[in-house]
Amino acid sequence: MCFWLNKTLAHPLKLKIMMCDYGHPGANSDGYRNMDKLDLKIITQLQLDGRATNAMVARSTKASEETVRRRRFRLIEQGYMHVIAVPAARRLGYRTEVIIGIRSDVERLDEVADALADLDEVTWVSISTGSFDILARVIVRTTEGLHELMLNQIYQIQGIRSVETFMVLENVKEEYGLTSTALADPPEQPDSLQSDS
């Protein structure tokens, strides 16, 4: 299960947080079954360059500009993709990044996840399986800022049993959504229900 907010937040590193597409209220539960290869090519192109114009995407996918325009709108409206700005944290002075593993009381799991998600410094929260009930990513400017956040806010959340932090030394790979390889090799599916090519 994945828990993401779908609202605009105050923290400069959270212009908008995406919901996982399988939990998006506007997305059809059939997922891939309502999409075809052109839809996936459009998503792939926009993952490479979210600023690409419909004309640019049309050239690379060999579709008409009007088809790309309609499909791009539909993919966004139905929750299959989101086009967002992702700030470069370190360039903006946010040099302390940690992953936090949290064990919580089972009956307060959602409450703890919601409380973490409300903190501006927390950029994602996931309810997970494994050793931790909840995983969260925190980005702050300094270790002093992290100390203050942990002591004055996170440790104060009712229902948390234990917290373990993992300092991120370097992000070797940081991609959002699906890789172009995954999109190029989707599961078997019928053609899109909306044929507009």
Describe this entry's structure for a reader.
With 197 residues, the chain is α+β, with helices and mostly antiparallel strands. It has six helices and four strands. The chain folds into two domains: 21-83, Winged helix-like DNA-binding domain superfamily/Winged helix DNA-binding domain (Arc Repressor Mutant, subunit A), CATH 1.10.10; 90-167, Lrp/AsnC effector binding domain/regulation of amino acid metabolism (RAM) domain (Alpha-Beta Plaits). Helices cover 29% and strands 15% of the residues. Strands 2-3-1-4 form a four-stranded antiparallel sheet. Strand 2 (122-127) and strand 3 (134-140) form a beta hairpin. Helix 1 (37-48) crosses helix 2 (54-61) and helix 2 packs across helix 3 (65-77). It is elongated, with a radius of gyration of 19 Å.
What is this entry, summarized?
It is built from 6 helices and 4 strands, in the order αααβαββαβα.
Number of helices: 6
The rough form would be described as elongated
Q: What is the CATH domain class of the largest domain?
A: Alpha Beta
Order of helices and strands: HHHEHEEHEH
Give the N-terminus to C-terminus distance in angstroms. Answer: 35 Å
Q: Low-confidence parts, pLDDT < 50 over ≥5 residues?
A: 1-29, 190-195
Task: Specify the helix fraction band.
Answer: 25-40%
Name the beta content range: 15-25%
CATH topology of the largest domain: Alpha-Beta Plaits
* Number of DSSP-assigned strands: 4
Mean pLDDT: 80
Largest β sheet strand count, sense and barrel closure: 4 strands, antiparallel
Superfamily (CATH H level) name of the largest domain = Lrp/AsnC effector binding domain/regulation of amino acid metabolism (RAM) domain
| Tally of domains | 2
Major sheet: order of its strands?
2-3-1-4
Radius of gyration: 19 Å
CATH architecture of the largest domain: 2-Layer Sandwich
The secondary structure category is alpha+beta
